[in-house]
Amino acid sequence: QVIRHKKILIVYLSRTNNTKEIAEIIQKNIGGDLVALELEKPYPTNYQATVAQVAKENETGFLPPLKTKIDSIGKYDIVFVGFPTWGMQLPPPMKSFLKQYDLSGKTIVPFNTNAGYGIGSSFQTVKELCKKSNVLEGFEIKGGIERDGVLFVMKDEKAEEAKTLIANWLTKIGIQ
Ligand SMILES: Cc1cc2nc3c(=O)[nH]c(=O)nc-3n(C[C@H](O)[C@H](O)[C@H](O)COP(=O)(O)O)c2cc1C
């Protein structure tokens, strides 16, 4: 398999661990280095305060500085980028990541969890920020609904469902 010769990075942003679980399932399928995006200044614990902060950041185009540093991004061939939908957009920290690192010539693979309202403009924004990359078809699945107090759901039958869907998707896009 061609994939065995490729170096894979899986970068994800996750607040309530649903996207993290998807990232781990992807890693179990295809290997690679798993990296959580952390901020210099974490978002508030309070949900509404976070929603408000994110809305403001989206409005002003603020790119929150990342605490996470990735050594020699150049060595990776395939970069998976995972994130929740926030305010129907790509979360600002993932914008920071995509703008900060040179991903030209690489294959980029987005994946997403959301509360059931979908990916919004997030995959489109990944494409716009990765014009010099080959952006493959992304994966999305319903995750938590923090607004309603539903946090981590990616376990038991839901995790089993995700595993099947992810394996099928990876096959479809030719990465396993
Ligand atoms: C600040 C914020 C904004 C959100 N906005 C949306 C949204 O616009 N649409 C949606 O479907 N879900 C939205 N959600 C819900 C998350 O996308 C969903 O719970 C996701 O599974 C969380 O992933 P995580 O557990 O990896 O953090 C939002 C969550 C947060 C914290």
Key descriptive features of the protein:
176 residues, alpha/beta, Rossmann fold, 5 helices, 35% helix, binds flavin mononucleotide
Overview of this structure, please?
There is one protein chain. 35% of the residues lie in helices and 17% in strands. By secondary structure, the chain is α/β, with parallel strands linked by helices. The chain has one domain: Flavodoxin domain (Rossmann fold). Strand 1, helix 1 and strand 2 form a beta-alpha-beta unit. Helix 1 packs across helix 5. The model has no long low-confidence stretch (mean pLDDT 97). It binds flavin mononucleotide. InterPro entries: Flavodoxin/NO_synth, Flavoprotein-like_sf. It holds the Pfam family Flavodoxin_4. This is Flavodoxin.
CA-to-CA gap between the ends? 8 Å
- Count of DSSP-assigned helices: 5
Biggest β-sheet, characterized? 6 strands, parallel
Helix content: 25-40%
- Rg computed from alpha carbons, rounded to a whole number of angstroms: 15 Å
Structural class: alpha/beta
Total beta strand runs: 6
SS strand fraction: 15-25%
Low-confidence stretches: none
Bound molecules: flavin mononucleotide
Looking at the structure, what is the overall shape? globular
Mean pLDDT figure: 97
Under CATH, the topology can be stated as: Rossmann fold
**Oligomeric state of the chains?**
single chain
CATH class, anyone? Alpha Beta
Please tell me the CATH architecture by its name. Answer: 3-Layer(aba) Sandwich
Query: How many domain modules?
Result: 1
| Fourth-level CATH superfamily | Flavodoxin domain
- Note the run of SSEs as H and E: EHEHEHEHEEH
